[in-house]
Each structure stands twice: as C-alpha cells, then as structure tokens.
Amino acid sequence: MNFFSKFFKKKSSKLEKEKSYLPKKKAVIEERFILKFIENGGKFLYCENLDEVKENFDLILSENDWSEKDVLLIRDNLKKKYGIDKSFSNNAKNAKCFLTNCENLIASDGSILISSNQIHEKKLLDFPNNFIILSHTKKLRNNISEGLAEIKSRGDIPTNITTIKNFNLKEKSDDFLSYGTASKNLYLIMLEKGVN
Fold first, then answer.
1. Segment 28-86, tens digit of pLDDT
2. Which superfamily is assigned to 29-191 in CATH?
3. Taking the CB of the first residue and of the last residue of the chain, which one, N or C, has fewer CB atoms within 10 A?
C-alpha cells in the first residue's frame, strides 16, 4: 500500500509542476478592458437595463453640477436608443461635456475607438474636456486590429478613426507616443449586451 501512495504522490506533484509551466489563462475580455480602462483614469459604470443608464447619466450630471444645456450632443438618435429624454446643446463652444457613443472598446489597452460617426471631421481638441460615452458589451474587442476589422466588415468605412486612451486630465504625459492626443475626463456607461 505504501508503494502505491508514493507512486501516486509523485505523479500528482509532477502534474502540478507541469501545470505551472502552462500559460496563464487570459482574463475574460470584459475584465481586461475594465481594468485597463480604470488604470488609464476612466470612470466606469455598468448598467443592466436602460433605467440604470438614465439613472447613472443623471448622477454624472449631478456630481459635476452640469445642466442638460452643458452637454454637447451631435448624434440625436442616442437619446432614443438609450432612453435619455433631455434637451442638449449643439454648440461646442459653451458645452462642458460631450455625450456620444463609440465604435469599439479595446481590451488590450482600455481605449475607446471612435470615428467620424461620433466626432465628424473635428479633432478631439475641439471638444470639451469631459466625455460621457454610451456603449454596450457587444462593442468589446481584444485589440485595435479586431476593432478596425469589425468597422471594415460593416462596409461603410468612416473617416477620422482614432482612439482615446488617456482619461486623466491631471497627468499630462510627456511620452512621445501620446503626442497629439488629447486627455479627456471620461465616463463610460456600459449597457449589458442582451438588453440593447
């Protein structure tokens, strides 16, 4: 009996040792995105339904002391899609916040992929420092390549495709890789994919 226990014990320790050399399991895409997004300075709000979207949106306005006239909205269809019934501004000069959606959410670096569908032909610097992005979990992609491939698969390829990756206005990066990008104070309201 002692012989068998030693034999199986050696086998199990050998198996454990082999497991330690296997690559670590990748975190699910949602978790990777959220961790990187928050690390970049973004504020993340998860919603299970449209009522929670409206509630969180109102809380953001209240927290920052913004009225609906302080919010710039270019795409009016977002109000109906996300059930937000407010009268927003269409004047970028007086706005304190920009409300929009996005093309995709990139998990590898926690960035937001946007295009002319959201910002037309303007530069990010032309918009207020505060962004509220409305999105849903169907928009999650592993990396920028997947995000661009998804855009291409739709057929009508937009222009002015860019990413927003730095969401902390207090930390201005001197890194040359971030040259020309605009830091934005960014809120992301993400709706569960089965709902929308």
1. 999 999 999 999 999 999 999 999 999 999 999 999 999 989 999 988 888 888 888 88
2. NagB/RpiA/CoA transferase-like (3.40.50.10420)
3. N
